[in-house]
Amino acid sequence: MLGLLISQQEIKEVEYLLKKEMEELLLDLQDSRINHLVKRALEERYQILFRLFRRFASSKDCLKYMRQIKNG
Description:
about 70 residues; mainly alpha
């Protein structure tokens, strides 16, 4: 376990960076031209970023970036 002391301004910066990266990943995941193996790697990266985002963001913001589970 590691600890991190950051200011409110730094929290906002981290949130902003995570949001932008997740938005870009979401767009790439919807692109039909991207290979399914690459999409799997993108999905793994998205999950890592989302777990980090949950530590900083409000519940309302987390709901905006939560991925929908696809059946089948």
